[in-house]
Amino acid sequence: MKILKYIYIVNVVFFNLFAVSYAEENDEDKGFRSVLDNRFFSIGLFSSADSIKTTVNVELGFKIMKYNNFQIKSYTAVTGSKIYDDSPRMYELGLMQKFTFGNDDQYKGEISISRYGFAFFSFGFLSFDPDKSGKFLFSSPYYWEVGGGAGFNINVSEHVGIVLEFGGGLHLVHNGKELGYPDKINKAGFGRMSIGGRYYF
User: Fold this and answer.
1) CA distance 7 to 26
2) Is 139 helix (H, G, I), strand (E, B) or coil?
3) Range scoring the smallest mean pLDDT among 56-65, 126-135, 184-193
4) What contacts 24+ positions apart, CB below 8 Å, involve 104-110?
5) pLDDT digit string, tens, across residues 77-133
6) Kindly report the CA angle at 84 between 2 and 87, in degrees rounded to 5?
7) Are strands 142-155 and 53-67 parallel, antiparallel or unpaired?
8) In the chain, pLDDT over 70 holds for what percent of residues?
9) What is the mean predicted confidence (pLDDT) over 162-182?
10) Burial class (CB in 10 A: 0-12, 13-18, 19+), 72
11) pTM score, two decimals?
12) Beta-carbon neighbour count of residue 192 at 10 Å?
């Protein structure tokens, strides 16, 4: 699919631009620094709730850039959701691409909190009661999201962090109104809260 190709290209381009390029470090670690440290790559599992659905996310992430105490990270997640509607029952399966911008989350021997902002976009498929001849996955209409927010990494060890995020955005279903799907999933804003954990390699 084209959307998967675009997500892959974005990650590869950012990785090639920043992951292996860094300026010389002085004694105070100023300027660009190598991102290839013990927290370069992570896997995560977290759940979220917003105004229309609950979601479980499995994500893969890596650092793109470090400059002084500032860093940018990329996260790609597989998402699965149950939409708050039982007539018909609705589910969503998709991919989410998220970029975070914040201070360094390096673990320094004690529990610490790092703060960041984030922006994301998501693409997915809707399913409607497939056991009752309803619309199943991997066919139109398609579900889209775009948004942002702020979050916290609570660094509890060298390899483990707890994640709290608060944000929101806009979701829509392409041609959803014309196809007769409920107004609340066609085009509307939403607020979202997420909690979970990440394991750093």
Assistant:
1) 35
2) coil
3) 126-135
4) 104/66, 104/69, 104/70, 104/71, 105/39, 105/71, 105/153, 105/155, 105/161, 106/37, 106/39, 106/155, 107/39, 107/155, 107/157, 107/158
5) 999 999 887 766 788 899 999 999 998 888 888 999 999 999 999 999 887 665 555
6) 100
7) unpaired
8) 75
9) 84
10) middle
11) 0.79
12) 20
Joined together, the tokens standing for residue 154 give: 């609570």
Q: Is the pLDDT of residue 23 over 80?
A: no
Question: Which ranges constitute the DSSP H helices of 19-118?
Answer: none
- CB crowding 16-43: b at 16 or more within 10 Å, else e: eebbeebeeeeeeeeeebebeeebbebe
| Cβ contact 123:76 at 8 Å | no
Res 18 pLDDT > 60: no
How far is Cα 136 from Cα 201, in angstroms, rounded to an integer? 37
The rounded distance, in Å, linking the Cα atoms of 77 and 60 is: 6
Strands (E), 7-69: 41-50, 53-67
3-state DSSP assignment of residue 15: helix
> What is the C-alpha end-to-end distance of the chain, expressed in Å?
30
